[in-house]
Hints:
The protein is an all-alpha fold. It has 8 helices and no strands.
Amino acid sequence: MSFFEAKVKKPIVDLLTSGASPHSLALSMAFGVTCGIFPIPGVTSVPVVAAVFLFGLNPVAAMLMNYLCTPLNIASVPVFVAYGGQFFGDGAEDFSVSTLLQGLQDDTLATLGQFQYVLLHAIYMWLVFLPVGTLAIYLVLYPILKVSIGSATKPTKAKTT
């Protein structure tokens, strides 16, 4: 079995055939995506786990989407930093993702201290995006999941003779 089949295809097929409702899966996947782009790389599991416990989400669906969104996470950090800099008027122009990632690998605490306000402002912008993005993704995923697994989750009526 290839890496893609083992790590992506099989978990998705297992989710779709697990009997979970389209609403539950769509909400879990939507939070997995939006929490997966948390603007501090490497700690996206923290908001995902928090959302799972707060909203009773499907942890497998949420974490799977979180992991699949890792490239999107790296790409979204400068966006949240830029909007945070514009909104709060700080020096986000000195920020670079490569410097942040290298610093996190070398000395995590010192790097977080160095970029504390830039990252805090990015987190504020992410918090503004979170409900809007989650709703938008949910509204896209729910009809798709309802059509694809809706009939599989409906209980069958027993025949009376």
